[in-house]
């Protein structure tokens, strides 16, 4: 069967922070769409969204919504994905799922196109989009791993609140306003809406993203650890993460320490490699105070890397600073990019 | 000569962010003062400051200001310390200097009382107070080093703007207000007032504190590296730092990875040790979402530690999260604490 040239695409979670970015990205990339179906919970159904000058009414997502859909981009929470993705697949759609529902399922490829696009060939209907903080890190590490071998990664994150959804952005905004105006406020969303306690995020730093696991790491930290190993097909890669929420609306930053296998690699080698790397923009000119910052990355698809320097003790150790728009490369753009790869590889029948 | 019971104390930089905290701390600690002399630049001289219900007029600091002074606490910038500290010493005062002017001078002890109080005996008139981000880290690491041996430290910081002075706090405040009100603004202070470019700090993260050195690390990062080795008397200790400014007014946070020499140490061992450690308050109960945060540490002298967990790969590796008020333990309180130690050890003649 020959591949089509225009596809029926569904976005599930169309009214959410990431869903909105998916629609914008499909438009800005001019993705070959025959029909765009926008789906949401019952509560948000009826919302009108403009795509390429056409108004589309958001419909309630049901098992039957996926009849005739070629590609379904899911970003409506793990529960919705678990319930509806299998229905989408049974109707013949390929699902690109932005939730954590299927990421560690061994039958589901976990894909960042710059790193493991070839894993798409092994899909069984569902492809998982990794966690936002994982994606930007592996994009920056993959060229180094390919050329020099990678043995160890230690990352501390500086994550934006939009990773917790639009309500968390609103909480940062309203709390900031309250503090500036010396008014009282009651934290209700962050660090984790479903967890017991909520803390101030404005003018603060919260060392908890997602709930805690038994080993003392949070799920967010374990996502970075396990997903990195899966994407890179390297169970022996040493990875550790500390994930921290800071009062930034959009744009995750990461302080990454890594060790390569090869000897005699210089910081300049790393810079040259990343300058030419797909999906990476090198911003590393300390003489002119050029380095990535979250305020500068918003709205851009790339991963920005700077502050590259050799460790002063470990012969094969390096430090770098990695910044990206968590709603784009960390979510919407990586999902649409997977869809583009599926089309390019002739996998959408 | 017997030690006095009341001392003539001078605070140089009395109108600055740290100077103000020094005065408050001298008062709250009920430091044995006979006479308190408050000194500043010519510009700020004449300011009136209340100490224990008495109004004191701030005077211009000159070489002659130190006649009869027993202890002089300096926090008016490196230039002022370099110029006036030798005069203070020649008049018989012991100088506790909060600037970086003498920290790496081999004739000047660099002291955090919980770590190396005994170094005070070797002073030649000047004692240096370490950099704020160094102090809180070594307080948390020292008990571990003493009991288990310490071989390696990797730290990523989340530093408050008050480390750059009161003008930086005002910049964070006014920028935040401008962004909330959708007004324009012009960064003028951060990341480094004297450097060429200035960047937005509100809702952003800036991976530059102090200017850059030739090896790609900033001076702030090199301070953490070199000062930690000096305070711990261990040139072979492996230390690396990435220092980042975040939109928090007061309270530095640090994501610290460290490796101990001893085998079979557990996270619970580390917790027990830090629970009993001087100057440390353990806040580590993830079941109840208890961990340190900068918004909670403001106004307290202690170093708060949480998120202690064993690395999943390195047998002797651990992660922890260290938070402290950068103006207190990071500056004013450590300086006053050094003065208390000097008195306790009978070193103020």
TrEMBL record, chains A, B:
SUPFAM superfamilies per the UniProt record, alphabetical: Glyceraldehyde-3-phosphate dehydrogenase-like, C-terminal domain, NAD(P)-binding Rossmann-fold domains
A GO MF label: aspartate-semialdehyde dehydrogenase activity
UniProt: NADP(+) binding residues: 15-18, 43-44, 162-163, 326
Domain Semialdehyde dehydrogenase NAD-binding: 8-123
Binding-site positions, phosphate: 103
Active site: 132, 252
EC class name: oxidoreductase
Enzyme nomenclature, EC number: 1.2.1.11
One Pfam family here: Semialdhyde_dh
Residue sites binding substrate per the record: 159, 245
Pathway in which this enzyme or protein is active: Amino-acid biosynthesis; L-lysine biosynthesis via DAP pathway; (S)-tetrahydrodipicolinate from L-aspartate: step 2/4; Amino-acid biosynthesis; L-methionine biosynthesis via de novo pathway; L-homoserine from L-aspartate: step 2/3; Amino-acid biosynthesis; L-threonine biosynthesis; L-threonine from L-aspartate: step 2/5
InterPro entries: Asp-semialdehyde_DH_CS, Asp_semialdehyde_DH, Asp_semialdehyde_DH_beta, NAD(P)-bd_dom_sf, Semialdehyde_DH_NAD-bd, Semialdhyde_DH_dimer_dom
Protein keywords: Amino-acid biosynthesis, Diaminopimelate biosynthesis, Lysine biosynthesis, Methionine biosynthesis, NADP, Oxidoreductase, Threonine biosynthesis
Its biological purpose: Catalyzes the NADPH-dependent formation of L-aspartate-semialdehyde (L-ASA) by the reductive dephosphorylation of L-aspartyl-4-phosphate.
Family: Belongs to the aspartate-semialdehyde dehydrogenase family.
Protein name according to UniProt: Aspartate-semialdehyde dehydrogenase
Organism of provenance: Niallia taxi
Lineage: Bacteria, Bacillati, Bacillota, Bacilli, Bacillales
